[in-house]
Amino acid sequence: MRAPDAPSGWLRSRRMRRIAAATLGCALASTAAVGTASTATAASGTTLTVAMDSSGVDTLNPFLAYFNGALNTFGMVYPSLNSLDREGKPGPYLAKSWETSSDQLTWTFKLQDGLKWTDGQPITAEDAAWTFNLIMTNNDAAKANGSLVANFDSVSAPDPTTLVIKTKQPQANMLYVSIPVSGIPIVPKHIWESHVADLKDYKNDSYPVVGYGPWTLTNYTTDQFEKFTANKSFKLGDVGAPKYDNLVVQVFKNSDAAVAALKSNQISFLSGLNTNQYNALKGDSKLQAVQEAGNGWTAVEINSGAKTRSGKPMGTANPLLADDKIRTAINYAIDKDKLVSNVLGGLGQVGNGYLPPAYPQWTWKPSADEAVSYDPAKANSLLDAAGYTKGGDGIRVDSKTGKPLSFRLGIHSDNSRDTQISQFLKGWLQAIGINLDIQSLSMSKLNDDLSKGDWDILMDGWTTGPDPTYLLSIQTCGTLPLDDGSGGNTDAFYCNPDFDKLFAQQVATFDPNQRAQIIGQMQDMLYKANNDIILYYANGLDAVRKGSVSNLISGKPDGNGLYPVQSVFWNYLDATPAAGDNTSSESHTTLYVVLGVVVVLVVVGGVFALRRRSTAGDRE
Asked: What are the Cα distances from residue 133, in Å, to 71, 138, 161, 446?
């Protein structure tokens, strides 16, 4: 996975780039460990063992890290100003309350009093102010999260329990700036101020790592495991310390045994099932198979002409794709219903808007007269009218240049769904006179080509959290690369000044209904541009062994039977051994999480797992 340049947008809702190859899954075991590799020795007491995200840990320095494994670690170890509650809405953490000034430029946070870092030193507003100010003024500190404070004018701590943030412009999503995992972690000033000079090289590997999260990091062995102990002093509102004494995050490289272990009662929970696994398990009376609302999309990305921020052309895209009639025809040629049926087995929704259905407050659909549905006759008519005539081989030719409508389609070499989709696309587009040259590329090669503009069409996907600002920001002109090729974080080289104006407007709009209307206009623009043709939103698929553990799946299903997106932060806190389960230190259970590669979670005295979806900074 590539660690992208820091985005120039206001705020990333979650660093959640889709892991194209990933079949996510987690499992919990109730008997001896099965097929573990380099298993960490469990400490005394109950131990919850979870999987390392497939991205791994790039660094334990929270000012520098992008990879999901590291971000998960920081969410467990360090506090943040706010949390997201179990419904994904902003709530308290270090801050117990907050208010804004009448001009909406000053935010005053009141922090909890009496909290202490794990080394016994008091946590004060100065720790938060120092963290934010370092990111605002130090290029090394700004590497990972600089964009999150780009709109900050000043941050101060007038007293130990008061934090004041002044912004340059009103910022409606302020409560998402510092949240667990995807936001800015607050670090202890008394530990970090001595490392400012060598910040870009500081590894933060002195154990135990001083923090104030639900867990304390006590050891990390690269590509093997992380070990944590529960922070018994942790408190968040009426929520106390984790139910387990220890947490082990471990790598495991065998996915075949997970479903078999679930069926044979060796594990209690499996998340991120593929369609075949879900269908095979849902009829088992000993299991509860559930679906989560889709929090991401899979799309066809079309390069209509890569340019730098100054407007300088770059890359090797076929110039014919600059014609919107061709891009629109491609959209009409795609049978999205068939993709949902054949690729997802019906376990998903047809794609329309840019934001996924997991967050209905931002859901948008085109009007009936503007909706593009499968209509190859319409596609052919558009291309005929535009003067692209079919040759003897059935492939259309541009009458002006004599060049055929033949485009490269880049797919991920390690993604079976990409392979399936590409074969459908090749047949559908050939039927309207367009040839696709399918190029199966490694993740690194596809990323490299994308950033240089050296592509025609790519398979693409993102997931997001409840605030859509970051995902919207990657479609703004400001995320295009500079003339030297650096500084870019664009998704498809889309640039529309009118879109940018709406982007700035939605950030400053505090009324949720008005903001949703603006974001709907932005999605309408993206829909009509046909640079990202959203194919579908896949449901998350999980299975739980009944009676072995409680609080593994939070929330209640909606009218379609879909559960809300599960939260890593809360489920680690809520995980509880089922009544009657043996939680002595001698009992051993194993938790497996499959995320691209299979990773193992070993639990002593209880079972829990949580699947973390592809994240944000990791782009393929």
From this structure: 20, 8, 17, 36
Q: Taking a C-beta distance cutoff of 8 angstroms, is the pair 428, 333 a contact?
A: yes
CB-based contact 29:592 (threshold 8 Å): yes
Cis before residue 208, ω within 30 degrees of 0?
yes
Q: Which ranges in 244-323 belong to alpha helices (H)?
A: 257-263, 275-281
Q: How far is residue 279's CA from residue 277's CA, in Å, rounded to a whole number?
A: 6
The pLDDT score that the predictor gives to residue 614 is 30
Q: What is the phi-psi region of residue 487: left when phi exceeds 0, alpha when psi lies from -120 to 50, beta otherwise?
A: left
20: its two tokens: 């194209």
H/E run at residue 410: strand 406-412
Separation between Cα atoms, residue 180 and residue 83, nearest integer Å: 6
What is the spatial distance between Cα 509 and Cα 186, in angstroms, rounded to a whole number? 27
Extract the tokens encoding 516.
């949703």
- pLDDT value for 433: 98
Cβ(149)–Cβ(135) below 8 Å: yes
CA dist list (Å): 437 to 187, 357, 391, 413, 456: 50, 32, 17, 14, 10
- DSSP structure class, residue 39: P
Is the sign of the CA dihedral 330, 359, 568, 192 positive or negative?
A: positive
Helices (H), 442-567: 443-452, 469-473, 497-507, 512-529
Answer yes or no: are the C-beta atoms of 79 and 213 closer than 8 Å. yes
The rounded average pLDDT for each run of 10 residues, N- to C-terminus, in the chain (620 residues) is 30 32 30 35 54 64 84 92 88 97 97 96 98 94 84 97 97 93 94 96 95 95 85 92 78 58 72 85 91 94 96 96 98 98 97 95 95 98 97 95 97 90 98 98 84 94 85 90 84 95 93 96 98 96 79 86 85 72 36 32 28 30
The whole-angstrom distance between residue 563's C-alpha and the CA centroid of its chain comes to 18
Which region holds residue 75: left if phi is over 0, alpha if psi is between -120 and 50, else beta? alpha
* Contact assessment for residue 331 and residue 323, using Cβ atoms and an 8 Å cutoff: no
C-alpha span between 620 and 601 (Å, rounded): 26
Q: Determine the distance from the C-alpha atom of residue 233 to the mean position of all C-alpha atoms in its chain, rounded to a whole number.
A: 30
pTM over 0.85: no
3-state DSSP assignment of residue 164: strand
pLDDT of residue 147: 77
Pairing of strands 162-167, 152-159: antiparallel
Length of the chain: 620
In 3D space, the residue among 457, 117, 137, 118 whose CA is nearest the CA of residue 300 turns out to be 457
Cα(406)–Cα(527) distance, integer angstroms:
23
Among 599, 519, 211, 144, smallest CA distance to 355 is for: 519
